[in-house]
Amino acid sequence: MKKLSSRILGLLLALVMMTAGMSLATAETAESYPDIEYWFTNEGFLPVEIGGAYYNLTKETIGVGVYMPYVDWNGGQTYREQLALRVAANDTPDIFIYNNGIENGLILDGAALDLTDYLPEYMPHVWESVPASVWETVRANDPTGQGRIWTIPDVTTFTRHGAYIRTDWLDAVGMKMPATQEEFVEVLRAFKEKDPNGNGAADEIPAGGRAEARWMDYLFAMYGIAMYEGYPEWDVYNGEITYSAVTPNMKDALAFVSGLYREGLLDPETLLNSGADWSGKFDSNTVGVYYHIPWVAYQRLQGIYDYTAGAVKAQVANLPQISAEGYEGFITVKPTGNSGKMVSADVAKDEQLMKAAFRVLDCQYNMEYRDLEYGVEGMHYEVVDGKKVKLPEDKATQELLILQTPGCQVENVDVITSRLEAVRTEENSWQIDESIALLNGNQADGRVIAADGMPSTVYDGYEDIQNRTLYVEYISKIITGEYDLDKFDEFVDRWYKNGGEAVTERVRAWYAGKQ
Amino acid sequence: MSARNHIRESAGDHAFNLAVLIFLILFGVVMAVPMIAELAVSLSSKIASQTGTIGLVPVGFTFASWEFMLRNAGLWRSLGISAASTALVVVISLLINAMMAYPLSKRNFAPVKVLMLVVVFTMIFKAPTIPYFLTLRGYGLYNSFWAMVVPQVISAYNLLVMRSFFQSFPAEIEEAAEIDGCGKFRMFFRIVLPSSKAVIATVGLFYGVGAWNQYATPLMMIQDTALFPLQLKIHQLVNAASGDIAAAVKVSTANYTNDTLGAAAVIFSMVPVLLIYPFVQKYFAKGAMLGSVKG
User: What is the pTM of this model?
Assistant: First the structure.
């Protein structure tokens, strides 16, 4: 009896030793990397903890465990504050995203790793995915003036924005797609007067936008104005890079926009709408033309569908790029994002840690790992008929998808299309079709502006210019008719005197250096 | 009824009282309207919230938001953490506060001037964020429950309120006790404290509300969601509203929005304070006047 038990014990011991040896052996063949703390935008999802589901997924898929504590995004503000605290405590996260110009301070303080020499060797997918022109911009923006690469910017290589119009409304009022400015105004009038939503009430809002004259860029774009989500941009006018808001184009655009407003063709609450107000109006089946990111239109179409209890499957199409007389209209495109990723300078103290950080970044740009975008099975997606389908977003149960490969690294039509396909279900299939059509429909209308990649440091000391304080005041009052159009000249004068001149000088110097 | 009044109300007094009454009613309405509006939002449907049609009455009545909230285990956990830290703050603060305020109220205690200078100094000069963070982190309070207790323990303002109260405490009583052979500690715990319920309740309420509502320090010190106090948790829920330019793809079949959830969360966090307040209020009305008249 005693003999038997000791034999069993011996056998067990041998087994344990064998498995231990095996696991040691596997660890040696595949390179083992330390974990990477990676700070990303989190708008309410569960944190990614070491040993948790998403951590395990990254560890299995790319060999590096990625984690992130809960850091509230809060429009980027809380995130930046929290990051500053960790940097101050000499405990910078290994990889982190930057935005709003914080990158320059971090670089100058020595918190960031110089990536220039590592990119081609350790991050070839990053190096090749980001267009060379963008790398040039990044080098030109190096705050140390040495032309080094400290940041990997988010890149958008397609026309992201655009206006779309309710084609079912066009049919209802018996009109064709407008191609000129006159036709466009006629369509708006018909939308207002002919009850295209057919509910018997004159509740239609032909067009509109949001507070601070934002998200109605297409009305300004007809006059060749560079504008990004309501922010006037810098582009070449009369042979020199200039703030689009102080050009004669803007004065003409304002004459047009304020005319629409006075005629009641724009939402009377245009200058008061929040994002939710304005999308809510569209969702309640009352808006004819909507300017946004066209490929997310399926959310709006679902909104109308819900609001009308399934009665309206709204039809939309791209509003063609219309040019005002004497101008050439275009949609502003900025490939080089003002946000992106950086690596902590501290990772250089540990070679394996540095390699791990590089590997994580490289995998994010490697299409081989694009399925990481789906997340964890059962948490973020389920398999239906052998195809992965994303589950509805649920912040109470889903961990943050830190590595959204490769979607938010380099955005292009293909990436967006695959993202849309990932959420296609039987019920929303018609919406996804419309979104894909919108995405492809206006690619030719975009143009990269001269100020692409311009660092926000040109505004240092002139926050009022950056925040568009004067601009918003004058533009709002001119649109509503409180000010005459002639007040525009006063605005231009005051803008230049209150810092505009100095900022313009800096921008022109930066642009000369970029070229 | 009016015959019972010894002093008859003149017409002027009557008008004044009426005006006060009307003012207070209006004031109460102004206070109540936002709460009622929030309650209405929390009980409304997703579509109503997105289209902004909710006033003071729920539109598309549903408990979806409340169901989501109350099923959120993290919220209950946060409630427990807030309750525990608040209770600890109140008990520890009151003890330390009273023990410091009492000697500081004695003029014959030699270091009073220096100590008071140090106390008042902290009222005027606040530590900048980063040194404050580094100091607390150095104490090992990063991602620690005690980060919600230790920094809250003493506030100069509350200390001064208590000190003023003790200054007006009748010296005769203390002298009488001393003659009867009462020591300093016995005097403090047996004579002074039992007669100071009003100031204890008032200052306790200050500390309690402060600890319950604390946000900035936990935001700075706590990243572990398991340790989130209620206010941070609520902020997480309310702030979860993704901007429409967010790249994240979202589809949701739930009948709530971040607005309705936020409204439910706000109401949820107010309830405990609303429940406790009436019990402390009687001391509070008395206590707020304490120390305002000094001998």
Answer: 0.75
